[in-house]
Structures are given as structure tokens and as C-alpha cells.
Amino acid sequence: MARAVLLLGAEGAAAEQLVGAAQTLEIHLHIATHRELYRSCPDELRKQLAGTVFTDFRSTAYAVDQLAEYCAQEGIGGVAVGRETLSPVAAALTDRLGLPGHDPAMAESARGKWQMAQTLRARGVPGPRTLAVVSPEAAEERLRSAGLHYPVVVRPAGGSGSIGLTLVETPDELPGAVRRALKWREDITYGIHFDAVAVIQEHLEGAEYSVETVLHRGGCTHLAIVRRISAGGRNGEELGRTLPADVDELTRITILATVERGLAALGLRDGIAHSHLKMTAEGPRLIEVGAGPPDGPVMEMIEHATGVSEAAAYLQAVLGEPPDTRPTRSGAVAIRFINTPRHGVFRGLSGLAASPHVIAVRSYAEPGDLVGSTHSKYTRLGHVIVLATGPDQADARADEAIAGISSCIES
User: Fold this and answer.
1) What does the alpha-carbon distance between residue 187 and residue 240 come to, in Å, rounded to a whole number?
2) How big, in percent rounded to 5, are the helix, strand and coil portions of the chain?
3) CA–CA separation, 91 vs 59, rounded Å?
4) Distance (Å, rounded) from C-alpha 126 to C-alpha 171?
5) Would you state the pLDDT for residue 242?
6) Residues with Cβ within 8 Å of residue 141, at least 6 apart in sequence
7) Suppose 15 and one of 82, 142, 235, 294 were both cysteines; which one would form an S-S bond, judging by CB atoms 3.0 to 4.6 Å apart?
8) Over the range 226-247, which residues count as b (16 or more CB within 10 Å of their CB) and which as e?
9) Where in the chain is CATH 3.30.1490.20?
10) Measured between alpha carbons, how far is 48 from 198 in angstroms, rounded to an integer?
11) What's the CA angle centered on 354, arms 351 and 357, to 5 degrees?
């Protein structure tokens, strides 16, 4: 019988890579999504699907009942997610069906920032000190009582990336940051409701990394430690990433040990995860874990640098098969994001110099699209990926490639 996987959510570049990997592995890939979102899926992606089922992810119980019936009818042997927001639905569904997956009892802790911080702390995983507040008026008093000092990071309880995130440096800035975080009470794609709290975290100083991990029956294979590059400042604009991270052996061991403790604490068993942490003077501190694929460009970087398809390994893991994580090459890759603070009509990108080292350029917007985010200061318009023999050379080539690029946006 043909192998079949149900992908929850088909939005974004990660889903596109999973569709491509399914074709390579001869896996029949089905998707579950909202009817209105499916209309915006590219025709090329739709043509590669074995089946589609429409559901409503706002109710986990409803979605699981409906999707369990679909899986039984179609012979589904594994469940993956296109976005980590849907990981609780996947955990409940795989538990119902008896398929490989994460611990459903820990599913909300693997998604909600407040529950995650509590769980990691209770299990002794080092991370930033974290508070939850329900109103701007209560925030300053909670900060004082906990002995937290400025600067602090304020963010919504749900969501991913830098949505609603603010670096707060003075008491005067705190109420506004909390109000902004409290506005984000539901997922902007699926309408899933989050806890009505704002999360306040200690701001950590140190080099910033992410770790990409494949999990099979609770065992971990780490594909890469990736160095994250940010501009700093109030909104934490992310500029890019480079792999491999140039860390010494002791740092590598302590980073991976901390990540493994975090993954175990959150009940992650079969699939992939990306972990965000900082290496402080006191050692690694785990900030958060995403129980699903990273941004599509990160998966692309890993494949260029190591030859390992993270998307293929994910599909194999959710089917209960040993994932193929053997590196077939060794190189360095850097990505730089094309960001803009401007709002208006996108007309295009220009200025990329021809270079044999640039292996991918992508624009996320089409000419005529309206750009400008309401939940983040910067809008990500695209990216450039370069290949090199080492991380320093990759950084230099990526910075050179991005330096000449400009975006045309009409106000």
C-alpha cells in the first residue's frame, strides 16, 4: 500500500518544500486546510496533492473528529504540520489514530509561550525568567515583584516569529508594549485563539542561535546549529542566518544538551523542531521551541550546506520510518533577508549583482501587492542565499549580495 501523509496547513514555503519532498519519496501527500485559504494555494502545488480536506482549526476537537475519519478513509500513515501553530491538532490526531507523533498532554506547552516557559522551568531547562500579565496597569508591579530589570522583551502568548514583540528599555514604554501584545489573541492565518495574556521575558545578552532537529521515537538528530543575525533595537529585526555556526566543541555540546532537555520536556517525539536560544555568560538559555518546520529558507539552507532534505526527513519521521539525515556534503551557507519599514504598493526589487556564489534569490511579493505589516515594524520582502566554503566567507558574500539590493515601494 502506498505511503500517505496528511499535512495540516498548506500555507508558506515550508509546505511547498514538503510537497516537493513527498514527490521525491513517492509519498501520497494530502492536505487539510481552511476552504478560503486553499483558494490562494498555487495551482502547481494543488496538482501535486493526492487529496484535500477542508476543516476548521479553531476547534481542535472538531478538526480531530473530522480529520480522523478522513485519515481512516484514505489510509493516512503520518501527520505533519506546515506551521507550528497547528502542532496541538497534529498531536491529538496522531494520538487518536495511534500514529507516530508528539505527546498530546504537552501539546499546548509546545505552542503557547507562557505554558512553554512554565514547563521548561519546572523541568529545570535554563531559559529567560518569564512573567505573564493580563493588563498594562499590572505590568510594572509584576516586574518589580519578580525582580526583573530593564530591558525586557514583551510578546504575545501565541504566534511565532517577531509578531507583536517589543524590546522595552524604560518603564514608560512598558504599558504600550503590553497593549500591543494583548491585541494578538488569535493566529492571523487560522483564527486559533490564544491565551489573553502578554508574556514578559528577561532580555538575554549573548550570541543567538537556532538548532534544527529531527526526532524519531524520541531520539534526536541535530541537522545544524544556525547563527542568527539581528539588528537589535526595539523590534528585533532579523537580518539573516549563517550555517554552520562557528562555535567551539564545548559550546556545541552544551547548546545541543540544552536543546535536547527542552525537547524532552515538551514531549516532542516524532517529527522536526527548531529551537531558539542564546549563549549567555552563564551558558545556553533556551528561549522557545517550534514543534514544526522552520521558515522555508532555513530548510533550503540546510539542504545546500549538508545535502540533507529536512522536509524529507520530516515526512519519514512522521511515518515512523528512520529519517535519512546523513550529510552528503559539507559547506557554508548564509541567508540575508530583504526587509523594509515602508508601507505602500510594491513595484519590485533591483540591484542584485551577478555572482556565482548566489544560489537563490526570492521575492515574497509580486508587483502591485500592498506591503507593510500591522504587527511588525519591518516587512520581509524576500531573501538572498549564498554558498561558501566557511561561515566567515559566507557572511562576507551574503553582506555583499544584499548591500546593492533596493526595493521600490510607492506610498
Assistant:
1) 24
2) 35, 30, 35
3) 14
4) 26
5) 98
6) none
7) 82
8) bbbbeeeeebbbbbbbbbbbbb
9) 129-202
10) 40
11) 120
Number of residues written out for the chain: 411
Q: Pinpoint the residues of the chain covered by CATH 3.40.50.20.
A: 4-106
For residue 65, count other CB atoms closer than 10 A to its CB: 13
Can you tell me the distance from the alpha carbon of 352 to that of 384, in angstroms, rounded to the nearest whole number? 9
From residue 209, alpha-carbon distances to 97, 247, 252, 403 in Å are 35, 10, 11, 23
Taking the model in full, what pTM does it have?
Answer: 0.94
Quote the mean pLDDT of the chain. 93
The helix (run of H) or strand (run of E) holding residue 179 is helix 174-183
Note the CATH number of domain 4-106. 3.40.50.20
- The CATH number assigned to the domain with range 207-410 reads 3.30.470.20
Residue 234 has pLDDT above 60, yes or no: no
∠ CA 30-33-36, nearest 5°, is 130
Look up residue 231 and give its three cell numbers.
539588528
pLDDT in tens, 297-355: 899 999 999 999 999 999 999 999 999 999 999 999 999 999 888 888 889 888 877 78
| CB contact at 8 A, 64 and 80 | no
**What number of other Cβ atoms are within 10 A of residue 316's Cβ?**
24
| The CATH number of the domain covering residues in 129-202 | 3.30.1490.20
Distance between terminal CA atoms of the chain? 55
Rounded Cα–Cα distance for residues 275 and 287 (Å): 8
> At 17, which helix (H) or strand (E)?
helix 13-25
Amino acid letter, 153: V
Q: How many Å apart are CA 84 and CA 92, to the nearest integer?
A: 14
